[in-house]
Amino acid sequence: MKTLCLIISLLLIAAAVIATRYIRREQENNVGNKFLRLIRKFDSWQMMR
After folding, report:
1. Any idea what the Cα angle at residue 20 is, between residues 7 and 8, rounded to 5°?
2. For 16-40, what is each residue's pLDDT tens digit?
3. Which has the closest alpha carbon to 39: 25, 47, 28?
4. pTM score, two decimals?
């Protein structure tokens, strides 16, 4: 019974770690996309001048 509880708790911790890594990676990609969009807007504004 103790080993079953230990295995379940380890699985839950592993799932939480994987989820947080995935969420961080998605947030970093989102920040990068926003930065690229700002650069494109600035370039198009410079072309219009």
Report:
1. 10
2. 999 999 988 887 777 778 888 888 8
3. 47
4. 0.56
